[in-house]
Design brief:
The chain is of the alpha/beta class and 337 residues long. It has 2 domains: 173 residues, 3-Layer(aba) Sandwich (Rossmann fold), CATH 3.40.50; 82 residues, DNA polymerase, domain 1. The protein contains 15 helices and 7 strands. The chain has a 7-stranded mixed sheet with strand order 3-2-1-4-5-7-6, with helices on both faces. Helix 9 packs across helix 10, helix 9 crosses helix 12 and helix 10 crosses helix 11. Bound molecules: S-adenosylmethionine.
């Protein structure tokens, strides 16, 4: 006889809007509450626990996936881009989806398989995209996509510690089983190194000041780290301080995950992973990333590794930026082998 699961009431919250992640039960169960999700989307926000893919039509245009193609999504995330690529490479094609995140990856695979992308057409591997060559096991791809940074689900999950918006442990690791959490990293870093990282990873104008206030300290939570940043910038206008908080979180996240090293490795390896005529598109979200992509594609073009590259960076249109503010900072570049 099967055991009956006792009925559990959904969490109640006081006031008009839920404050805590778990209270966002309607957004977290989009299939049951499509009207709530539509309302959140129309207000220019991303529903909790989901991720709106960025510059989808532009990416599909430059990658031009077709039936029978082998596509690689280096950053599977919530599967938004992968779903669109899969629709175009079928019948006959396949998508290899990589992501370093062991928490979200199985959820995304389950979602995609539940949508009918079963069997061999979808291969999902937990891997840093620096290891794309090994993940391809000797095959060459027709199209490759990398949508850099973190997903909304990672940002929305307080346990991952990626933002100051939710109280949680100051972790920030895309793979919580590897490396050290941001809190430990901050305890060990020296002020000059932190200042350099704040400048290089996030163009922080108050890098020196913040580095002296934050380096070598122990922060018990995301909230404590954000409070220390605010305390280091007394008397500054609130919007300026908010930007510094966001930039400091970004700079530390990039360091904790060694994001530039992974991107450099991907950029070096890409030509070996593409068929002749194959295309790669990379979505970057800040100047440190975009500079690397631009330089690598230009160098590859000069050396004859790529036959064609994006002349200019492509940006999201005003409608998309209005609907999804995260698209505002997106910079898309592409190259053809
Ligand atoms: C912006 S999200 C991708 C969202 C996805 N395109 C979608 O439409 O749902 C970035 C994803 O890349 C992953 N990621 C970031 N750096 C990575 C790396 N070096 N190797 C593998 N995955 C990485 C993150 O874990 C995150 O899931």
């Amino acid at each position: 006889m099967s055991e009956q699961t006792p009925h559990r009431r959904r969490p109640r919250y006081s006031g008009k809007y839920p404050r805590r992640f778990e209270e966002k039960y309607k957004e977290l169960d989009p299939a049951k509450h499509p009207e709530t999700v539509a309302k959140v989307l129309s207000s220019g926000k991303t529903p909790a626990g989901s991720h709106v893919p960025i510059m989808v039509s532009e990416i599909l245009e430059v990658l031009a996936p077709k039936p029978g193609d082998l596509a690689v999504d280096c950053t599977l995330g919530h599967g938004g881009h992968a779903r669109e690529l899969l629709r175009r490479v079928l019948p006959g094609g396949r998508l290899l989806g990589l992501d370093a995140d062991p928490v979200e990856l199985p959820r995304t695979e389950e979602i995609l398989r539940g949508e009918g992308f079963g069997g061999d057409c979808l291969v999902v591997k937990k891997s840093n995209f620096a290891g794309i060559h090994a993940a391809l096991e000797g095959e060459e791809a027709d199209v490759i996509l990398a949508d850099l940074g973190v997903s909304s689900m990672q940002l929305d999950n307080p346990a991952r510690g990626f933002t100051s918006k939710h109280a949680g442990p100051l972790d920030m690791r895309m793979n919580p089983a590897r490396g050290i959490p941001a809190s430990t990293w901050l305890e060990r870093v020296r002020p000059p190194a932190l200042a350099e990282i704040l400048r290089e990873n996030a163009d922080e104008p108050h890098a020196e000041l913040l580095a002296h206030a934050l380096a070598g300290r122990s922060f018990s939570s995301t909230i404590a780290f954000a409070a220390a940043i605010r305390a280091a910038l007394p008397g500054r206008p609130d919007p300026e301080v908010k930007k510094s908080v966001t930039r400091a979180f970004q700079a530390v996240r990039i360091e904790v995950n060694d994001e530039f090293a992974a991107l450099d490795a991907l950029l070096r390896t890409l030509p070996m992973c593409l068929k002749p005529g194959g295309r790669v598109a990379i979505l970057a979200f800040h100047s440190g990333e975009d500079r690397r992509v631009k330089k690598a594609f230009q160098a590859g073009y000069r050396e004859g590794v790529y036959s064609e590259i994006a002349r200019d960076v492509l940006r999201a249109g005003p409608d998309e930026c209005f609907a999804n503010p995260r698209a505002t900072s997106a910079k898309l570049r592409w190259a053809r082998r």
